[in-house]
Queue: 2 jobs
Job 1
Amino acid sequence: MEGVLVTGTARASLTGECVRCLEQITDEMDVTFQELFVYEDHALPEEEDDEVSTLQADLVDLEPLLRDAVVLALPFQPLCEDDCPGLCPDCGARLADDPDHAHEAAIDPRWAALADLNTQTEQN
Ligand SMILES: [Zn+2]
Ligand SMILES: [Zn+2]
């Protein structure tokens, strides 16, 4: 026996924003973790880095372990729904609230000439 194997489960509450529409997201997640905490007098000096967890006077410090488990389990790009349509590029309205959202005159008349130019470029 060179240490104590710690196995655990933790539940965490998440709060964040959808990356597409900025809607507030709250969720809960369960994470499991397992780590061997080596007795201090068994840890070789060169092993005293972040890779090896050691018992600190018969106590285990679960915080780094828990933090790593939670951070790894977090979604990289949280979404309010898997198919969140995001925001209207013209006015910023949240499209999930208004699926038929559309603009009659999407183009400012002062820029209409540029739109014609763009059409010509695409045709060439
Ligand atoms: Zn969203
Ligand atoms: Zn809009």
Job 2
Amino acid sequence: MTGIRLGISGLGSAAGFMIRAATEDPRIILAAAADPLQHPREAFVRDFGAVGHESFVDLCKDPTLEAIYIASPHEFHAEQAILALEHGKHVIVEKPLALALADCDDVIRAAAKSGKIVIVGHTHAFDPSIMKIRELALGGEFGRLGMILTFNYTDFLYRPRRPEELVTARGGGIAFNQISHQIDMVRAVAGVNVRSVRANVGRLDPSRPTEGNSTVFLDLDDGAAASLIYSGYDFFDSDELHGWIAESGVEKPTEGHSASKRLLQTDTRPERERRHLLAYGSRTFSSTKMHLPHFGTFIASFERADVRVTADGIAVFDAEGKRDIPLLTTSTMPGHRNVLNALWAAAREGQPCIHDASWGKTTLEIILGVLASAQERCEIGVNPMQSALRHDSSASKTNSVPQASHRRPLAQSAFP
Ligand SMILES: NC(=O)c1ccc[n+]([C@@H]2O[C@H](COP(=O)([O-])OP(=O)(O)OC[C@H]3O[C@@H](n4cnc5c(N)ncnc54)[C@H](O)[C@@H]3O)[C@@H](O)[C@H]2O)c1
């Protein structure tokens, strides 16, 4: 079977990870890219003998491309996904799918009309550990899900940022960028719909005036619940609890606390310039020992076991004690590799991917619900038509859950 000729939109930090995964995957041909910045474009053309475009439209017009990975800034995702679909391309689009629910609907319609697939990712729901917990959970291995706890303390707000990344209305802050990972991990493992959201978010630093911390409670079908905690204020680093292994799986220095914040204050270069150093061709990847990617601590509690994400797999704590299930592979980017696996399975084998455009819309609805709930201090209902793929395990017995009394639906245009 011939390889998939892939084009890339946006050669920034996200693209660097996907490119690394693609270079390890003989089924993917890195054929073209579009980015308004000359430097990453030239580096990409040089490294892969590929074609570089300044404009996304020109990338779409390339008849040799079968799929496009969209890793441009959030505000372009929906329009680029639609244009790519209209040009007959399969689409992988970074999270979030869009910034408004109506735009998600447009992508869903464009996908249906074109017959092409949309995969929303990468998110950490594609991590081998999360996919393994999902597989075991949906197979009924541990019985009914009771709750999920996930928390992550990072330096998110103090990494070099584009100006719009600090403006919530333009998709900035942790809600669109980071909580989206947590929501997707919870939804993937739970395999059931999210009924409602209650949340509190914080803006603790006026110099980075967007959401930087959050406490989210998701009420799930089947009577389970999830707690999602996030802080991007660069004080505590929860990788300390993960053997000092970074999100990508590389070992990291232990003196990290507040380092990004200090660098932001002392580095005299403009932040935009430092941001560009993360683009393709400017960044070098660590060659230290690789572990699995992760997104903070993740513990799922079932009837018969607690299951935790570990550095190299998952740990199951049950009546027999603790057992480790190692999941290391030869890939240095196994989460991104799983996105490419999903592309191949969908494009070549006709297998559906749960992380489709409808999935992306529901995740956005929950993100918007987080912001609305925090602002209005009430519980926000989530549309029951969402596309969490339901499992039919007999181990799962539906609890009777009363309707929330102080719940209101999310307004379509709600942007708190
Ligand atoms: N899944 C992950 O692990 C992960 C990690 C980082 C970022 N992301 C996501 O990837 C996306 C990009 O984030 P990033 O951190 O790489 O940003 P970035 O600023 O590092 O890169 C964005 C790139 O897009 C280019 N660009 C700007 N306008 C464009 C346009 N109209 N068309 C094409 N390219 C354009 C910029 O020049 C830049 O090179 C966001 O959706 C972000 O949430 C995902």
